[in-house]
Amino acid sequence: MTISEKVAYLKGLAEGLNLDTEKSKEGKLISVMIGILEELAMSVEDLEENALNLGEEIDVLSDDLADVESIVYDEDEDDEDYDDDWFEVECPTCGETLVVDDKALADGEVECPECGSRYALDLSDDDEEDGESEEDEKE
Question: Which residue ranges make up each domain of the chain?
């Protein structure tokens, strides 16, 4: 039985008593209390309905957010090899693969966490190492 149904039952009981709601102080009091209970019951039912609707909307938003997260994080995992913020180099001492980021590039030096050796980063192209520059190739 809902709150509104309980209040309606109470109102029916009060009407069955044939209380004088205009002259009797007790009748007026009971009539006003039942009116307040009716308003409260309607408010509670409205709040319950709104809570259910909000719960459904939250479920929909949660599902949408899960879809967005899967797209964003899956892309990050798939595109990790193509990220411009870092690249991999091999340690000349131990052969360990090192990740070089923008900070290491700015420092110009990398330390291998495996063997502890430090070395400067060589940012020259392979063609320039062979004695040719890009301008020489164009000619």
Answer: 1-52, 80-122
